[in-house]
Amino acid sequence: MNQNVLKRDCKELHAFPHIIEFAYKKNNTIQFDSLKRETSEFLRLYYVIDGRFDWIIDNQHHILYPGDLAVIFPGQSFGGEKDLLDIGTVSWLHLGLKLSPAGAMELGRWTRLNEGECRNIFKILLLNPTPVLPKVKEAATLFQTISTELLKQEIGFTARINQTIDELFILIARQLSRQNNARRDFPKSFLMLEESLRANLSHHWTVEEMAALVGLGITAFTEKVKNYTGFSPLNYLINIRISEAIKLLKRQDVNVTDIALDTGFYSSQHFATTFKKLTGYTPSEFRKKNITPTE
Hints:
Shape: globular
Number of helices: 10
Strand order of the largest sheet: 1-2-9-4-7-12
CATH topology of the largest domain: Jelly Rolls
């Protein structure tokens, strides 16, 4: 299932009219204009396997890291912060849901959850103040099970997939019930770190300096950043530099060399090489093609 995006009409989904789309996608380069903001009538679940994803969900900005799960309800908008899909690996599941006469969501006949359980699960989901569930690592196994069963289609795969989707809903509801609006252990420090880095990107940050900003030693800091983002501290910093460079390249009056130095690259050549590696374009090609995501 590696790199596959399965849509409703494909043969793998013929037995699942309730599955609109299922995907497992690994991005090695930034994909411009590949995740434009849109609203659909489907329930959409996105699970981040690795990487850092900048998304707008229901007009709110969210940054997702490995283990995070996004739940987007029908009628809510969703897309990349700059209409792009960031570097990393993500799996998603789009489900067509029915609406009861009272306006409540119903899963349909495929589920083995009873009516009361469905009602309670969606009540918990609707009362959730944020569409992003942090660190739901158990979801990785469930998404992988769906992927494997769709690929192999062995005896009983239909029941197994439907059961796994039920388990996914149960996991989400239980996670929300347990956390009681609890915050992740590192996000405030992490947000402060990112703000500090963006405020002075021209500085040649070391891992030791970044660790000091959040009051950690190098080893503990490196481990937390790796667990939280999937990147090493320096690769995480490079992604921030490229993100800022994309914004500056939209301004035709700013020299590419100045952008390189302002975002912390040692030279315009270093900037061009890194930019092309992560986006597929040199900075000059990026401007000429006018591939500029909307902020």
